[in-house]
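P.,

For your records, the input lines for the assembly:
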Amino acid sequence: MSLWVDKYRPKSLDTLSHTARLTHLLQSLAVEPRDLPHLLFYGPNGAGKKTRCMSLLQSIFGSGVYKLKIDVRQFTTPSNRKLELNVVSSPFHLELTPSDMGNNDRVVIQELLKEVAQMEQVDFQSGSAAETGGLAHRYKCVIINEADALTRDAQAALRRTMEKYSKNIRFIMLCESMSSIIAPIKSRCLLVRTPAPTAQETVEILAKVAKDEHVSVESDAILRSISDSCCGNLRKALLTLESMALNNEMALKSTSPLIRPDWMVVILKMANRIIKDRSVSQIVECRSTLYDLLAHCIPAKVIIQELTLALMKEVREDEHRLGVITWAGVFDERLCLGNKPIYHLEGFIARVMCELDN
Amino acid sequence: MESQRLKRSLSSLTTEINGLREGSFCSSTSSSIAKKSRQSPATIAESDIKHTLEDKSHEVEEWCQKYEPHGTASLVLHQRKLQDVRNVLEPMISGNSMCRILLLTGPAGSSKSSCVKTLANEAIRDRLNTLPAPNFTLGNPRKHQSYIEYDGSAVPLGVSKVDHFNQFLAESKYRVGLNVAVLLVEDLPNLFHEETKTQFQQSLLRWLYSPQSRLPPLVICLTECEIHGSKDASYSFSIDTQFIAETVLGPEVLNHPCLRRIKFNPINKTLLKKHLKAICDRERKLIKADRWEQREAFIASIAENCGDLRSAISALQLWATTSGSASTFTSTREQSVSYFQGLGRIIHGSKDLPNDSSMINELMYSHSAGTGELLKMGVLENYATFSKGQFSLSHAVSILDSLSIADIMTMENTSTITLTESVEFPLRAVRHTFASLGKIATSSHHRPNFPRESKVRKLRRNFMTEAGRYASVSIQKYKSWHSMSNIALYYSYYAPLIRRQLNYKRKYLQHYLNSLGSDSERKKVMLSGSDLFVVNEQVDVLNRIGGELRSISATSDVVLEENEEPLDMRPHMIMAHVSDRPEAAVDNEHLSTDEDDGISEEILDPIVESASEHDTFSFSDEDDPIYDVLASQSPRKTNPH
Amino acid sequence: MSEGFFNKRQKTASSERPNNEDSKPWIEKYRPKKLEDVTAQDHAVNVLQKTLKSANLPHMLFYGPPGTGKTSTILALTKELYGPELTKSRVLELNASDERGIAIVRDKIKNFARLTVSKPSASDIEKYPCPPYKIIILDEADSMTADAQSALRRTMETFSNVTRFCLICNYVTRIIDPLASRCSKFRFKSLDASNALGRLQHVATQESLNLEDNVLEKIMDVSQGDLRRAIMLLQSSSKIVKHLDPPIVTRLAVDELAGTVPSDLVSNLTSKITSMDFSEIMNYVGELKRSGWSGAAMVNQLHEYYINNDQLTKSFKNEVSWLIFGSDSKLTNGGNEHIQLASLAIGIANLYRKGM
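Structure tokens returned:
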């Protein structure tokens, strides 16, 4: 069976679990599907942006939106490089993830959208009304995952496309941070804030899943500690729950050890090492760890964020904390501007050690 | 752009000479023609450099041709090296050697081809003189052509260069026995073209494996160089950045037992000076008086920063026969500084150069932005080796900060173009930091580590492939789509963990199922465990995507790494010891590359530095190419099974 | 190729367009139809009114902040000059960010500029001035490349007998000098609250909306003088509340839609900052991120709070401004919101700690 996180993922607006306010909003949008504006969901990872967006589509198009398929598409970049991209689509929507496209996202987006617009024309002629169950919405949805990773170039192109194809295409963009999205796009979209579930909501959801899966839970305390360790990331919480349940013969005791992702553990340990042993040789050791994390495709931005948060928890003195967070801000920016994350990550670690020495 | 500015080659010097010459003789010998003229059967003069100065054409003649050696005695080459070559070449000529290809590698102007030509002349002359010549059709043995040069520029239209080369080999195949001639290949086909390179290597292999019992000695002179100015910042050793034997010929040719390799070094300073002085003495008449006075100083300055005989002579000629400010000529073709040399200089400073500023200047000249990127990575990887990491954190901070700042110095909107400033700045900053630390009395420099970046990239690719497999299983089997970033952060760890557990349970259940008797009981169990039977070892991803994180238990792992390193280093150690015998080194390398070709092992491989501190051999120029190759191979465990 | 395709799509789209005003964006629906309807740009409007009478138009350059009526003005002007029918053949509007290259200037613009003017129909001549030239409107001209702008310079001179240009941009400094000097420049002021509010009120009454108290002020506040943004906000908030019971546009809904952070959350954060407890600040920032609030908006609102707070000393404001300036630039460069916001908050708290 698929993972619990997928198995218990709500598939329609009625079954959405937390943040009722948002569910009402989406329901009101679904009442007049013809008028669906472009949407921009923003909120932390694992808060249910994608789930909500798919539920909305389901309420508009029917469960056909879950009939996913992957196509491999080929694109040629202006520099004549061939690019292969996996495109996930259903008969009613298609998904794009800019990080798969690298710096060529503008070309890919334009090519794909042009294609979509053309396909739509064919659909009109063949009379798609029957397929959609009488609701002939004459547009196709394009979901852009991680929209904050789009280059400025691509965003500018998108801005035009949004107007030009507004009859044929609706955009639903998902992002964690709105700050890198240009104002014209923001102003053309309906902004939908998607908060993570509160600790209480998380515990409730976990308890429900545990019950359905016949996992005996000694007390809510263990669920609460899962929820705490996940900071509202429901995806992580459910994955943790499932792996812990299997590890403990489907019986969670309050003392069962938490299972965190290995890379998180690595970062936490690294934070401890940085605090305890401040030396050049420790920097060199940290470099090995950093390289290992990078080799596992853990984004450098995630590394620096988790490392900073871990350091802020461990460091006691205010002066030191100020140093850590200030330099984290500096090196976080450099990560965005530079090419090789390792310089900045190691630079950050050295700075932190230096600050702690003072 | 940089390389254009820097690579003042022989030909440009030649044209300068001809242009600046006061008498302005109309020079008809352009360098390319000059080069071909060398092909004519060499006349063997009794005494070598004695030329009649009355010769009319001497004024337009280039000195480096004029003083081309005509006997082994006049070769500007270390005697031992000469003997090395002789020891290999002579048995080859007489047909008493297993060796079929002699490979001479080294920088430009290190007398590789001159050495072969003179040796061939002497050996073949001796041979013909001592043997009673039964076949008179050969005519005068002195007219016998002792070497044949492959001329790549004379390719007829429509014939590919490699075909032409093959034709050359086929035609000269029978130059054995009395008719023996040395086949000299200097001019190689366009090896930057991948296909041509493969074909070229193939034809060499055919030669090496040829069933013919006797073949004429084939000598390949390979001028090795680092190639600058490649457009993309490439950190890997490939033919695009490193035109060296390893990249040109490939391991199969290079490691063939019938190939001998002899490495040439830049010409020794003393030898070079001596030779230049001798030329000056002979050209006394042409040299202007004021120049004559300064000749010692000029020669010394040439010899100091140039190991290239040909360009040194050209520079001397240009300087001696033209008027103009002397200073403009003192810089000859800059010697390129290799990666390891450069690193050593940045971190430990250089004794040869007056100050750090000029050292960096030179380094910047000989590096394009692309290789500069490699240098920066190298600095990151190696700064901690300075006095074994025993310096204060604030110094480390200033080094890392400069590297970090340099990384964000890119042109606006064009993140791909590397600015030279982004290389120069960190190098200067790092040198400054270390200079302020003062010289540490550790004379033995550690062997610099090679950046791990390319290895990490390989692992990332590997991760992406595995993650792609996971994603396609998940959408096809479980109908759920996970984005790459979520796979990297969560599913890559949790999903295999969960499925592994399920799989274990399934096996257990299966076992139990088989022990059951009745069908109804089986059905009940099947029904209750329906979730488990979905898991399939063949289809599902059951291992941590991208391999386990090695540093989970960081402290113990470091110990592990150290345990592994001596093992890992073994080939390096052996090699360093035998590096004075290049042939052996090449053989050894063959071993070390053959041992571990499994990709799967590499996945589990921890990312360790390419060299450990155990390796304390001071590196000399001679070792460099081997090290280069070794360093380009990621360190691997010697087979654990 | 793509060009042709786009044109075709546009045509089909327009022919299919159902003739209901409902789905039409309000910014189009309530765009001023006449010059005199343009809000609060008296200076520009007066000058243009005069040119209407004399029917002699110079090349024009409109500049000013977004949403101040630049495009509306020129569109209204062309309507008054040519009337609805003739406008189609006489006016070329280019506002594409992706149609910026020099090739477009060479081909599309030049070809249009070169055309001789068509003869207006008799009825049009009666109603409208119909001057004997065409108008090319280049919206977002500041995003044109410099060489495209230089190419335009020639075109402007050569065809000035039959064509007038109107360049519209936000930043006049990004227009190359030779081009700017050929145009009469019109600066569009940022709208003052009363004018814009009146316009917004007009829209609200026309659409018969139920409004909470001070919602319009809130909208104006959030959209910072950008009337387009304000009207769009009004439309989307009305759309959202449409199916609620009762359908009242609330301030909270406006906040939510504009992506701004409610003021009570801002004041919570500022009080945590004043308390100088770094752990508390970290927790609260984590909480904010968890609820998905935009860090960039938070930084903006912190800026407003600190700058408008009269209890603070000048030097303190100065220091805070520097910190906010840094954070904002880092965020724009793609910085992590959580880290940057935490860094800013702790930085400000540190200012308090130092006793400034």
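Two observations worth noting. Residues 382 and 449 of chain B are 6 Å apart (CA to CA). Residues 484-515 of chain B form the longest helix (32 residues).

Regards
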